[in-house]
Specification:
Blueprint lengths: L23 E3 L10 E5 L8 E7 L6 H4 L4 H8 L2 E6 L23 H16 L2 E11 L1 H12 L6 E5 L19 H16 L5 H11 L10 E7 L8 H14 L7 E5 L5 E7 L5 E8 L6 E3 L14 E3 L4 H9 L9
Parallel strand pairs: 3-4, 3-5, 5-6, 6-7, 7-10, 11-12
Antiparallel strand pairs: 1-2, 2-4, 8-9, 9-10
């Protein structure tokens, strides 16, 4: 039985009444062991061998609500396909991705396997570049992104998190007497809350969680990662941003020494940092936004305008989706001011 218990402290996101109105539901896309829903967005006049972006909503949201952060408009401009997975309340009472449950966070199982099957469905139906598949998410979705990157680094070239945290921070165990999954759900909620408050592990400890629980024996290149966080986030402690840096620099085999830092308008409230490999390629980047609460930043009436405001979709004068797309190498006629 899927976990449906969650502490009130893990109610990450509110409900918006805005509807994208442009997403198409896909009824059949594989075995779907996670029993989740699939929605796609296909811009007009697509060229062959186009990229694909997967976008994960947060708790108490759905695919249409979270599409308002600006991805569909950007897909129209840059010509990439999109998938918006949706978590039914039958799986989790609050619509959260079960990033703290073992059965949904291991390669070949549960929700993350269903998300990969969505990617495979898109590859079967459209001309998609297998080397240009990316995933991002907010809050519960932001916590699930590193888990998916760790478990399927052979599928995804890059990821991005908004108010997320390191892969496999939370953990649950199986108990022979736990017939209905209730104890595992309770244990998962406890572990998730601890993670959201921040854990002080060394980089190698964080990296070992990926090597132990992700794609066992993987020797290929690891996905790049963009990490976004607000300093006034009262739900996910800002310490999680550094924990993600520690984890993914270790996974990539680079040190945590900062290679570049810059202040960004508006008002120098945004600090952007980069971590490079020996060739100068940016493998991990962070955006820390001073005074921003829990949510994904968008920009209204600026050079990088995107999205529609709503609960936990915040006008901070900086467009996360545009900058994330540039980090991934999705070409545009726009560059940061």
């Amino acid at each position: 039985m899927k976990a449906i218990l969650l502490f009130s402290g893990i109610l990450l996101l509110g409900v918006s009444s805005a509807q994208a109105g442009t997403l198409t539901r896909v009824a059949n896309f594989g075995d779907n062991p996670g029993r989740i829903e699939m929605y796609k967005y296909v811009p007009r006049n697509m060229s062959r061998n186009a990229p694909l972006v997967v976008s994960l909503h947060g708790c108490l949201q759905d695919a249409a609500i979270y599409s308002n952060v600006g991805w569909t408009q950007l897909a129209d401009q840059l010509k990439f396909y999109m998938v918006f997975p949706e978590q039914p309340t039958a799986n989790n009472a609050y619509g959260c991705w079960n990033w703290f449950q073992r059965d949904d966070t291991r390669r070949g199982r549960g929700e993350i396997q269903s998300i990969v099957e969505m990617v495979e469905k898109m590859q079967a139906d459209y001309s998609i570049n297998a080397r240009r598949i990316y995933i991002e998410g907010l809050s519960a979705g932001g916590w699930m992104v590193p888990v998916i990157l760790a478990s399927y680094p052979d599928v995804f070239a890059g990821g991005a998190t908004n108010a997320g945290g390191p892969a496999f921070c939370a953990s649950t165990r199986r108990y022979f007497w736990d017939l209905f999954g209730w104890w595992q759900a309770y244990e998962g909620a406890l572990s998730a809350k601890t993670c959201m408050n921040g854990k002080d592990y060394a980089p190698r400890q964080w990296g070992n969680l990926v090597r132990k629980n992700g794609y066992d024996g993987y020797q290929g290149p690891w996905p790049v990662l963009s990490i976004w966080q607000g300093t006034a986030d009262g739900t996910v402690d800002r310490m999680n941003q550094q924990e993600l840096v520690d984890q993914w620099t270790n996974v990539h085999g680079i040190d945590v020494r900062l290679d570049k830092e810059e202040k960004i308008d508006p008002g120098d409230r945004v600090t952007h940092q980069e971590y490079h490999d020996r060739d100068g390629t940016v493998l991990v980047e962070t955006y820390l936004i001073r005074h921003m609460a829990h949510g994904t930043p968008i920009a209204l009436d600026s050079d990088e305008s995107c999205g529609e405001t709503g609960p936990y979709i915040l006008d901070e004068g900086i467009c996360a989706v545009r900058r994330i797309s540039l980090f991934w190498g999705l070409k545009a006629g726009w560059s940061p001011p």
